[in-house]
């Protein structure tokens, strides 16, 4: 065992040395900066991300032209869930208040019971998130852009890191393994917030995957537990509600025995938002479809997306290189860990962030 851990430590040190020897300018891949104006509404901004098929983008101030933070697809879950909850609360408050007034009209003849009375819902005063407080003025609530809140309040929750071109990959790997999906590289024009390029978590992972495959650690050494799961019979909305409440990117969808069937994440919500037609006959619905129905319909309707397996699995004794190779091949951001092919109940999960964190 001592010899094994010596090999693990030695391979990790070699990996860190490799990352420290390469600079951002040496990357063979990068992405042109796409920046979002903080005046965009969340619905508009998330639509831009969906149409561009990207997970996150920096947000620029309208007044200073400086980057104020990051809008991330993980925020779509929070946004859509809280918009839905706010609408449900408003409808409940309005219905309760109207029933109360109609009862008074019947008993005291104060108001004609047949008259429609506009009710202003009472805002929640305790336990209300900062995001939800801004939704009363949001375009998605009022169906108008007048007075709507922009995305600045969401972006400021996720700082955006900018590095010079001569920064090392080790420096860049730290934020990309601790919550950030993207970082920027300086040297661009003012219209791009001073950015010359964007480096994503996926770009860095693909660049260094061959070196990750040399690590001597096993999946069991790095995997995270416990695994958050959602029964396939639960509503899709409940799955995204769980993702939003935990502030994570994705969860495992399991059958009634606890065996893993699929993975769902904020990327699925991105696909739904891009082609969302809720309310139409046969449309994908996050409010009435089970999570399994939602995912099957959604992926069947996304003809332009790559054909993928429902999810990837590996075992605790598999090498870290094996897991990295699976992530590179499938394009997924996480792989679930099961004890055996006969026992497909997830006992752990390993993501690109976890792999990058081994060096940080």
From TrEMBL:
Repeat among the record's keywords? yes
Q: Which UniProt keywords are given for this protein, alphabetically ordered?
A: CBS domain, Repeat
Q: Name one Pfam family in it.
A: CBS
* CBS domain boundaries: 29-87, 306-360
Superkingdom as given in the UniProt entry:
Eukaryota
CDD domains to which the protein is assigned, alphabetical: CBS_pair_SF (cd02205)
Please name the InterPro entries in this protein's record: AMPK_gamma/SDS23_families, CBS_dom, CBS_dom_sf
Protein name, as recorded: CBS domain-containing protein
Protein source organism: Hemiselmis andersenii (Cryptophyte alga)
Q: What is the lineage of its organism?
A: Eukaryota, Cryptophyceae, Cryptomonadales, Hemiselmidaceae, Hemiselmis
């Amino acid at each position: 065992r001592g010899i094994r851990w010596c090999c693990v430590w030695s391979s990790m040190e070699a990996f860190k040395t490799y990352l420290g020897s390469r600079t951002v300018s040496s990357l063979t891949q990068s992405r042109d900066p796409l920046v979002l104006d903080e005046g965009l509404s969340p619905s508009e901004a998330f639509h831009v991300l969906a149409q561009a098929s990207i997970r996150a983008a920096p947000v620029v101030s309208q007044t200073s032209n400086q980057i104020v933070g990051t809008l991330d697809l993980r925020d779509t879950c929070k946004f859509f869930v809280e918009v839905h909850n706010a609408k449900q609360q408003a409808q409940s408050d309005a219905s309760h208040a109207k029933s109360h007034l109609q009862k008074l009209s019947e008993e005291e003849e104060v108001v004609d019971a047949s008259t429609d009375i506009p009710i202003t819902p009472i805002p929640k005063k305790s336990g209300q998130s900062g995001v939800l407080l801004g939704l009363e003025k949001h375009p998605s609530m009022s169906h108008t852009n007048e007075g709507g809140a922009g995305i600045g309040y969401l972006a400021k929750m996720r700082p955006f890191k900018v590095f010079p071109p001569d920064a090392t990959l080790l420096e860049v790997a730290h934020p990309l393994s601790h919550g950030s999906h993207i970082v920027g590289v300086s040297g661009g024009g003012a219209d791009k917030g001073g950015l010359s390029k964007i480096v994503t978590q996926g770009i860095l992972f693909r660049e260094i995957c061959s070196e990750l495959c040399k690590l001597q650690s096993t999946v069991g050494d790095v995997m995270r537990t416990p695994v958050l799961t959602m029964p396939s019979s639960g509503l899709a909305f409940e799955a995204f509600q769980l993702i939003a409440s935990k502030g994570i990117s994705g969860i495992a969808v399991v059958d009634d025995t606890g065996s893993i069937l699929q993975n769902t994440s904020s990327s699925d919500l991105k696909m739904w938002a891009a082609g969302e037609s809720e309310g139409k006959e046969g449309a994908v619905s996050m409010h009435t479809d089970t999570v399994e129905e939602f995912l099957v319909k959604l992926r069947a309707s996304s003809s332009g997306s790559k054909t993928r397996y429902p999810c990837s699995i590996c075992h605790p004794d598999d090498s870290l290189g094996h897991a990295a190779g699976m992530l590179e091949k499938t394009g997924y951001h996480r792989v679930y860990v099961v004890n055996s092919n006969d026992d497909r109940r997830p006992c752990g999960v390993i993501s690109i962030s976890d792999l990058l964190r081994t060096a940080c």
